[in-house]
Amino acid sequence: MKSLVVFLAIIFVSLSASSQQREVRVSGRVLDSASREALPGATVVLLLKKDASVLQHVLTSEDGYFNLNFNYSDTSAIKVMFMGYNVYETPLAISDTTRKVALGNIMLGVKNIQLGGVEIVQQIPPIVVKKDTVEFNAGSFKTAPNAALEELLKKLPGLEVNPDGTFTFNGEKLTSILVDGKPFFTDDIQELAKILPAEIVDKVQMIDKKSQQAEDSGVQDGQRLKALNLVIKKDKKKGTFGSVGIAGGDEKRYNVNANLNLFSGDKQISLIGGTNNVNPNNFGNTSPGILKNTNYMVNYSDQLTKKLRVNGGYAYSKNFNQYGSESLKEYISVDSTKYNASSRVSENNRVNHRFSLNFEYEIDSTQTLKFKPSFSFGDGTGRSINNFQISSISNTIRNQGTDLTSNNNKTTQGAANLLYRKKFRQQGRIFTASVDWSGNNTEGTGLLENNRLLLDSTNQVKLDSTRQQNQNNSNSSNLSLRLTYVQPLKNDFFLESQYSYDTRATETDRGTYNWSKESEGYTDKVDSLSNNYHNLTNVHRAGLNIRKSLDKTDFTLGLKLQYNDLSSDNITKDTVSQQHTLNFSPLAMANFDLGNNRRLNITYNGNTMQPSLEQLQPVIDRSNSLYIQTGNPDLKPSFTHAMNLSYNAFNLDKQTGIFLGLSGTATMNKIVNRTTFDETGVQYSKPENVNGSFNLNGYVTNTFYFKKLKTRINARTNSAYSRNVSFLNGEKNFTNNLSVGENLSINLLIEEKLELNGSVNATWNQANYSLQPDNNQNYLSYGAQFTADVTLPWEIHLGSSVKYMATSGQARGFDQNNTLLNGYIYKNILKGNQGELKFSAYDILNQNTSVRRITNENYLEDVRTDVLKRYFMLSFVYYIRRFNGKSMTGSGPRVRRSAGATSIRSY
């Protein structure tokens, strides 16, 4: 801790000292002198007077702009260079009082080269680090013709696809997707990655996005979300694109899908639909069970008038999932260790409808009004059969039986947000007011039937059976008001103030009924398992931030007070409980531009989390006969301290980069479950507040490019350490988890005819228990993946992927050692390669499995789930690609971008 304090003190002292040096900013824009078009990627060099050596250099932006910030010394001149153009050089007249030098438009003329024709290959860096963004040049990562966006994303350093299909960048989950900086129709990145063509993307940006509230109000709240932004090529912003595909295979496998997208300036229309039973996932991951999915989506976005922008859509989904699973759970207990071996067969159906709209109206140049309503409804059914056997470490069976469960539910949800924003004449002065409402209604019915043989503490065997129905109805409504105001102060300081009021009312009515032989129905109410519970929460928040903004650095310091008023009314038991708490939430943020494509960001904030209604409701829940839960109305809100540090750097000359991060959280009054066991192995759980839980995470990602070999290597190291507090039969237990992982990948492109990709990975995990050190665990997972794509004569593409997965240290029979082999052959046909005929083989070796380990404070569980095994498919896809945007033109040489070295080609 002392080392961390010293480290931070050194950073802040150094930055404070550097900020006292006088800084000069030079800005300008580089244009073609004949066409007056911007020249992106031009090199701007700052020279020293004494020896004309290079002090600093930058590349111009997409629009030709550049900014150079430096501490004034013996500076001589600015030199601007662009391949095929004359060099521009101008001296800098800087006095002791100069702070800014605006060079305006810098016109470069074309060199008089006597060639029949010249093609200039302009070097565009594959990775650029900006203030809150890591930007990838899409042209630096080769994809096949007609490839979807997903093929491009798989090649980006630091980006990973999880088994559930979600995306992470350097370990942080991507939560939203933007197109040209604006929200797209949906935040389902996995879905959009399948329908958007890679060829329309110019740049892929990973953005540390502010929360929606912070973006609207300008008031920092310390929340940072990782977002994916796609910058579309200029000549692809207007056109129609999409695809229609049909596929059939053995064992009645099918996949039919279509999408049509219209981009025309501000207007965007999207139609998406599909149905399949093959769990399509082109990222090499496996979904558990057998799925049948049908999805339709209609979206519309347009700037209807100069002042009104509208977007909205409708989505329909129907999902069926059927799977079997086996598991072995080892309970960590003070007096003895118990094992639960079970096999389960489950089936779930779900249908959902969602409507959403978004209106943005510009009242005038200083006032904006936004309105976002949404509505969804759906219903679902599910059923499962679970056979279980609980035994002691001596293999004595304490409890065995069968649980049959079924449920059906209907859910209706609605939400609306109204925001007013006012910008005043003084730059940076902003006022916002917003009102949010959300509501939810759920009606559900569940059935439970079980038969068990129990061995009690006297070793007597007895039969126990249950046949029950539970009816659950719940309603919730949330209303919030938020006011913010930003006031600019002197010397680039800003004062940010905020106030919000939230009120949340929830009501749940749970009734449990036993089967009655007399009435032949579920009519005997079980009072101990039934409850009518109301909860009202009122929260007041008020805060102040002070922010300092400089060209290369900005700081934010703030404090927020939160008063919570919680009232719970147990209608069934005629009891009322109240709780009042006051929390302080500090905030500290700092962002540093260290120059030469390097950035450092540090964030600290505190956050309060309210207990859920299920955690508060004091009623017994026996829907799982082996895990009996009870709520606790005396729970307090938890408070989490969170700190994050990230450093990103990329060397444009060597094409190497490093991205590293450290983060940690510590939670006060964390809500955990106090668990006890009876002699038959049944768990009884009740939530309580505890202190002492924390976690630490770190990662380092390195990327290297070998130009002569056309090879890129990425290496990623990540580690995590956590300490969690739990209770085992009334005694406090500390669980310490440590994991260390390494991933090394390589991409090799040979004459654009052969592409090879390979990776190896390994993750080591350790779990230690303070009360039961004999149950400490060590386990390892490791694997390798190799893909190849070769272009044969007649433009026939042949490809294959091999994925090896192995684990050690898991329960007997659950360690995996299998190889997943896929292959395909396809050819583009029809005019303009708009058709694709493809034959695919999945899991050729028939070894596909899904095994996972769950580590909990009270147990370790290994689970094996059914997955789709070997099948073959023949498919045809028709691609729609019609764009009428203009290509880059000018009177100078023709410019083409490349990730390689800059060169001149004659023709």
Low-confidence stretches: 1-21, 113-122, 281-286, 885-907
Q: What average pLDDT do the residues reach? A: 82
What does the radius of gyration come to? 31 Å
**Structural class assignment:** mainly beta
The total count of helices amounts to 5
Helical percentage: under 10%
The N- to C-terminal Cα distance equals: 64 Å
Envelope shape:
globular
Major sheet details: 26 strands, antiparallel, barrel
Q: What amount of the residues lies in strands?
A: over 45%
DSSP strand count: 51
Task: Give a summary of the structure in a few sentences.
The protein is mainly beta.
Characterization of this structure:
By secondary structure, the chain is mainly β. Among the domains are: 22-116, Sandwich (Immunoglobulin-like); 127-234, Ferric Hydroxamate Uptake Protein, Chain A, domain 1 (Beta Complex); 306-480, no CATH class; 527-691, no CATH class. Helices cover 5% and strands 66% of the residues. The protein is built from 5 helices and 51 strands. The strands form 5 sheets. It has a 26-stranded antiparallel beta barrel.
Defining key terms:
mainly beta, Immunoglobulin-like, 26-stranded antiparallel β-barrel, 5 helices, 66% strand, globular, disordered C terminus
Helix-strand layout with pairing:
Layout (H helix, E strand, L loop, with lengths): L1 H19 L2 E10 L10 E6 L5 E6 L5 E7 L3 E7 L6 E4 L8 E9 L9 E6 L3 E3 L3 E5 L11 H5 L5 E3 L5 E3 L2 E8 L2 E2 L5 H7 L5 E10 L1 H6 L6 E9 L5 E12 L4 E11 L2 E10 L13 E14 L4 E24 L6 E27 L2 E26 L4 E27 L6 E26 L5 E28 L4 E24 L4 E5 L5 E19 L3 E18 L4 E19 L4 E12 L3 H4 L3 E2 L5 E4 L7 E14 L4 E13 L1 E8 L5 E8 L2 E14 L4 E18 L2 E20 L3 E16 L7 E16 L3 E13 L8 E13 L5 E8 L7 E6 L3 E7 L5 E13 L10 E5 L4 E4 L1
Parallel strand pairs: 1-7, 8-50, 13-16, 34-38, 37-40
Antiparallel strand pairs: 1-4, 2-3, 2-5, 5-6, 8-51, 9-10, 10-15, 11-12, 12-13, 13-14, 15-16, 17-18, 17-49, 18-19, 19-20, 20-21, 21-22, 21-48, 22-23, 23-24, 24-25, 25-26, 26-27, 27-28, 27-29, 29-30, 30-31, 31-32, 32-35, 33-34, 35-36, 36-39, 37-38, 39-40, 40-41, 41-42, 42-43, 43-44, 44-45, 45-46, ...
